[in-house]
Design brief:
- The chain has one domain: Beta Barrel (Porin), CATH 2.40.160.
- β8 and β9 form a beta hairpin.
- The chain has three helices and twelve strands.
- The chain has about 190 residues and is α+β, with helices and mostly antiparallel strands.
Length: about 190
């Protein structure tokens, strides 16, 4: 695990891109606001054209998290979906870390997190306002909290760009999955 995943708190800031037609994020140290990594959607021209006509929730998405040195740290892949989204998180070597599966009926949004074999790792559940999410293990112990931050009136009304504060309170080895879960929350619940 790289030093990037050893932080206890992160700030994930989505960049406002009115004309870019792809998602772009900065991942910062929550205390010092120092750039640690970037997460950029890998979208070709045909996908960008589809985004003009179709809802983003139905289109495939691939987001690559890269450190400031350009090295791949994490890869998040969402295939085309019609009703429920499923995302796959992979490490820098392409090994599957876990899957995020949207549940059909949930109050505030829920993603079930499973390992590559389908075993439960935990779940990410949102509150009724979709402003605070809790990543918990199957026993209910909190692994991390993910707060959807208020970005101001203009940013909230005119864009889909969001900021998140991520606090790890559990197993530090799950930091890559927690960050992937933060991006999954934005892609599934706040970009549609």
């Amino acid at each position: 695990m790289t030093d990037f995943f050893k932080c206890q708190e992160y700030l994930v800031r989505e960049n406002v891109g009115f004309t870019s037609l792809h998602e772009s994020y900065e991942i910062l140290d929550s205390d010092d606001k120092i750039l640690l990594a970037t997460a950029i959607e890998d979208a070709d021209l045909s996908l960008k054209i589809q985004k003009l006509f179709f809802d983003k929730a139905f289109l495939p998405t691939q987001v690559k998290v890269r450190g400031t040195d350009g090295r791949l740290l994490l890869d998040l892949d969402q295939p085309r979906s019609i009703i429920l989204a499923t995302l796959v998180a992979k490490d820098s070597e392409g090994k599957i870390l876990g899957n995020f599966k949207q549940t059909l009926f949930s109050y505030g949004g829920t993603l079930e997190v499973t390992d590559p074999d389908g075993g439960a790792i935990g779940s990410i559940r949102g509150d009724w306002k979709c402003r605070q999410y809790t990543f918990s293990d199957p026993g209910g112990k909190t692994i991390a909290t993910i707060d959807h931050l208020y970005g101001g009136v203009a940013r909230e009304l005119l864009t889909t760009a969001d900021d998140y504060r991520v606090k790890l309170t559990g197993d530090q080895n799950l930091a890559p999955l927690v960050l992937a879960g933060t991006l999954a929350i934005d892609l599934v619940f706040h970009e549609a």
